[in-house]
Amino acid sequence: MTTLLNVKDLRAYYGQVQALHGLSFSLNEGSLTTLLGANGAGKTTTLRAICNMVRSTGGIEFDGKPLNNRSTESIVRFGIAHVPQGRGTFTTMTVEENLQLGAITRKDSAGIVSDIERMYAHFPVLKQRHTQQAGTLSGGEQQMLAVARALMLRPRLMLLDEPSFGLAPLVVRDLFGILGKINREDKVSILVVEQNAQLALELADQAYVIETGRIVMSGKAKDIANNEEIRKSYLGY
Amino acid sequence: MELFTNQVLAGIATGAIYACMALAVVMIYQAIDHLNFAQGEMAMFATFVSWQLMQWGVPYWAAFVITLVFAFVGGVAIERILFKPLAKAPVLTNVAGFIALFAIINSSAGLIWDFTIKQYPTPFGSSPFLGSQLISTHQAGMIGVTVLLLIGLYFFFQYTRIGLAMRAAASVPESARLVGINTSWMIALGWGMASAIGAIAGMLIAPVVFLEPNMMGGVLIYGFAAAVLGGLTSPFGAVVGGFLMGIFENLAGTYIPGVGNELKLPIALALIISVLVVKPAGLFGRHIVKRV
Q1: If we measure between CA atoms, which residue out of A215, A165, A168 comes closest to residue A195?
Q2: Is residue A3's pLDDT more than 70?
Q3: CB 3.0 to 4.6 Å from A54: which of A48, B86, B121, B238, for a disulfide?
Q4: Which structural domain, as residue segments, surrounds residue A5?
Q5: pTM score, two decimals?
Q6: ipTM of the complex
Q7: CB neighbours of A18 closer than 8 A, spacing ≥ 6?
C-alpha cells in the first residue's frame, strides 16, 4: 500500500498560541482514517493546516509532493477536497450551483454534468431540491450537499471535519454509510475528524488519537475500539 | 400628461446612469465590504481618456471600446497595487485609501486636461427620438446601452462559470477557496468590471453634464443613494434604485413647488432616509432564508 498523505512534525499557530506540537501521521491510498480526540485537541487545526488555512511548520506531503507554502486554492487542485466544520455551504446559491462550484477547477464539462447526476443518485434528496437555495436545506441535507460538493472535485483525498455535528443519530448513520460506500466504490481516500468516536471507529480502518496537539495513540480502528483502556481514557465511552 | 411622461422618460435616462454607478459601487462592496468613494473619479478619468482618443481622431465606438479595456485594466491595477495590501487593514485605513485615490485621480485629470469644461460628443445625436418630442435620441441611447449592459451582466453572472466563481468568492470567500477558486483574482476581476461599468456611465452622461474633472461628483452621490435605496447587497436592487432615483429626482424638480433644479438632490436624499427608516436593508436588501 502506498502512502498518500504524510504529515511530519506538524506545528500550527493561531497568532502566538501554538495549537499543534509536532504531530506526525500518515494515510494510505484508499484508506478511511479517522482522527479522534476531545474538544480543543487540535483535530480541526490539523485539517486546516493540511489546506494551509492556518500558519504551520513541518512537513506535509501529498502523493510525494510537498504542500507547504502553497495557497489553499492550489492545494485543492491536487485533488484534496475539504469539507469544513459548519459545512461551508454557499447558502444564497442553489443546490445545483453548489455542486457546480465543487467542480469549478475541472475542465471536462460533460464529466461534470454526469457527476452531478451521479451525486443525485447518491443523495436523492438533493435532486428534489436542486433549484432550492442551499440555505433552506435542513442540517442533514446540507451535510449531504457538502459531501456531494466535495466529491464533485473527483478528489483523491477527502477531509471531513465533524460530519456528524448537529445531526440526528439516524441521519448520521445514513451519512456514514454513504461515506463508507464512497470510500470503497469510488476509491476516494478519506480523513475524517470526529468527536463521535464510536461511530468513527466503526467506519474507519485506521485511527489516530490526538491530545493537546500531539498524537497519543495510533493503530487499526478495530484494535482501538476493542481496547477498553484507550476507550475510557481518551474517547470517553 | 405630456410633461409627466417627458419627465419620467428623462428620469429613466439619467436613472440608467445612476443604475450603472450604483451597480459598480455594489460590485466592489460585495467583494471587499467597502464603498468605493473614488468610483466616480475612475469613471471621469476613463471618460477623459475616451475624449483624448477622439481628439486624436479615433472614431467614437473604437474609442469607447479602447476606453473600456483601459478602465478594466486600470480597475484591476488599482486593486492589485492599492487595495490588495489593505485587505486586512481596518476600515479607516481603507477609507483613507479611497479618499487618496479620489484626490489623486481628480488632480491628475486636472493636471493633464485642466479644469475647463469640454464638450463631449454623442454617437446618438440629440434630435427627437422617433419623431417624438418626449425623449431625445441620446437619452434613448443611454437607456438602450444600459439595458444591453445589464442583460449582458445578468447572463455573465448567472450562466458562466467565471460568473459563478465570482459570486461564490463574494458570498463565502473561505468556502470559495476550498473549492479551488482564486478569490484574490476574483476581487481584482470585480474591480475591473466595476471600473468598466463606471466608464460606460461616464461616457454616456458626459454629453449631458459636460466633461470636466468634477463631472461625476453629483452622479456618484445619486449612485450611492441608489445603491443604498436598493440595498447594498443586491445588484438588482441597485439597478432598480438607480432608475427610481432618476425618475423621482425629475418629478420632484418639476412638480414640487420651490424645488426646481437646486433642491433636487436634497429632496432625493430625504426620500432615501425615509425609505431606510422603514426598511434599513434597502428595498431589495438581502433577507437570507435560513433554518435555525
Answers
A1: A165
A2: yes
A3: A48
A4: 1-78+154-233
A5: 0.88
A6: 0.89
A7: A11, A12, A213
- What are φ and ψ of residue B120, in 5° steps? -125, 130
Closest Cα partner for A126 from A150, A142, A103?
Answer: A142
Whether residues A212 and A202 share a domain: the answer is yes
What is d(CA B166, CA A1) in angstroms, rounded to the nearest whole number?
A: 40
Helix, strand, coil % over all residues of chain A, rounded to 5: 40, 30, 30
**Rounded-to-integer distance, Cα A201 and Cα A222, Å:** 7
Taking CA atoms, B142 is separated from B42, B54, B129, B148, in Å, by 19, 19, 12, 10
Q: Do A90 and B175 touch (CB under 8 A)?
A: yes
Q: Are strands A157-161 and A189-194 parallel, antiparallel or unpaired?
A: parallel
Residues of A in contact with B291 (CB under 8 A): 135-139
CA distance B172 to A218: 36
**Residues of A in Cβ contact (< 8 Å) with B289:** 133, 135-136
Reduced to 3 states (helix: H, G, I; strand: E, B; else coil), residue A84 is coil
Q: What is the DSSP string of B215-242?
A: THHHHHHHHHHHHHHH-TT-HHHHHHHH
Counted domains in chain A: 2
Element (H, E) at A10: strand A3-14
Is residue A196 located within the same domain as residue A130?
no
Beta bridge partners of A62: A5, A65
Strand partners, A66: A61
Q: Where are the beta strands (DSSP E) in A64-205?
A: 65-66, 80-83, 157-161, 189-194
Per-residue model confidence as pLDDT tens digits over A6-17: 999 999 999 888
Cβ separation A136–B286 shorter than 8 A: no
